[in-house]
Specification:
- The structure is a single chain.
- The protein is elongated.
- Strand 4 and strand 5 form a beta hairpin.
- The protein has helices spanning 2-20, 34-50, 53-80, 82-86, 112-127, 143-155, 161-172, 180-189, 194-201, 204-219, 241-254; strands at 92-95, 101-107, 131-137, 227-230, 233-236.
- The protein has a domain at 90-254: 3-Layer(aba) Sandwich (Glutaredoxin).
- The two termini are 46 Å apart.
- It has a five-stranded mixed beta sheet, with helices on both faces.
- By secondary structure, it is α+β, with helices and mostly antiparallel strands.
Length: 259
């Protein structure tokens, strides 16, 4: 730990020295003996102890830089995975299927934040008639979530649009853990063909579809649910109706999430 700190301080000193020293005709880099290195480190250490706010400022700027870099990487990943994100056969489309603006949501039926964000999504669809919503099962919270996603995927072979949205709302708004049993109960309540549903839910193609969604989410470095994609921007977390609506309205106005 001490060696790493000394090396970091020395690297900073070299950078400061290179910036501060006047240019010379020589292209040889400046070099310091051990005593000079120690003195430079002591000066920097003393300065940082006397002005700890500098470390906070550096940390804030580093976080800003990392956020910008991460957003840029996600934007490129969205461009490279448009087909899988917006038009995959392993997804449900609700809202306006021919809408000019698409919002993708990655969710887990056992995610408490997803349950609370459901009302935001429903309100957003009501407020935005041109909104096409793509629902992607992202079962990251254990075996129950995977089983619920398999049943939901099988249900999509029988119902779509508003009917599937009703299934989705009932399952996501239920209390307690959600797994295969709960998903089958909702399907039965809505009058689905249960024999077919049981068979389809075990189809290897459905598991392959869920794995494809996982791969796309991993490519986008999505770290939790709910996560959204609007335009070329990924939004991680239950950010609330206002923020989502702001981004959708901007897409409608100028084709970008920020005009």
């Amino acid at each position: 730990m001490i060696d790493r700190r000394r090396k970091a301080l020395f690297a900073a000193a070299l950078a400061l020295a290179a910036f501060a020293l006047p240019a010379t005709s020589s292209s040889a880099p400046a070099s310091f003996d051990d005593a000079q290195k120690t003195e430079i480190e002591n000066i920097i250490h003393s300065y940082l102890v006397a002005h700890p706010e500098v470390l906070r400022e550096v940390s804030v700027e580093l976080e800003k830089k990392q956020r910008v870099e991460e957003a840029d990487l996600r934007s490129h990943a969205i461009t490279d995975n448009k087909q899988e994100l917006f038009n995959s056969p392993f997804q449900a489309v609700v809202g306006n299927p021919k809408g000019k603006i698409t919002l993708v949501e990655f969710f887990d039926y056992n995610c408490g934040y997803c349950k609370r964000a459901l009302a935001d999504l429903v309100s957003l669809m009501k407020a935005e008639p041109e909104l096409r919503v793509v629902l992607k099962d992202f079962p990251v919270l254990g075996p129950n979530s995977v089983e619920a996603a398999q049943v939901a995927s099988a249900a999509r072979r029988q119902i779509s649009g508003d009917k599937f949205l009703e299934f989705h709302q009932k399952l996501l708004s239920g209390h307690g853990p959600v797994g295969r049993e709960q998903a089958l109960a909702v399907a039965k309540e809505l009058g689905l063909d249960m024999d077919r549903l049981q068979k389809d839910s075990k189809d290897p193609a459905i598991r392959a579809g869920l794995e494809d969604v996982m791969k796309v989410a991993d490519t986008l470095n999505l770290t939790g649910t709910p996560s959204y994609v609007v335009g070329n921007e990924a939004v991680v977390g239950a950010v609330g109706l206002d923020q989502l609506k702001t981004k959708v309205d901007a897409m409608s106005k100028c084709g970008k999430t920020i005009c």
